[in-house]
Predict the structure.
Amino acid sequence: MTVEVFKTNVTDVEVANKIISDLSSHLPESRINFDLTDCDNILRIESAGIIQPQSVTEHMIRWGYFCEVLEA
């Protein structure tokens, strides 16, 4: 299982749900969620396959949002 955690500036639940839907179509075998109660507005993706962080970041930029891998 691969897990990637991203820091974002998404604050709206409806927008988060739309982004999850969009990302799910590109990462169909993944579990994707946001934690908007966290100060970093976390986007978490779990997948049995490979997650390409740059691709996720590019999707978020297309939606007009900031996104970067959260370093541990």
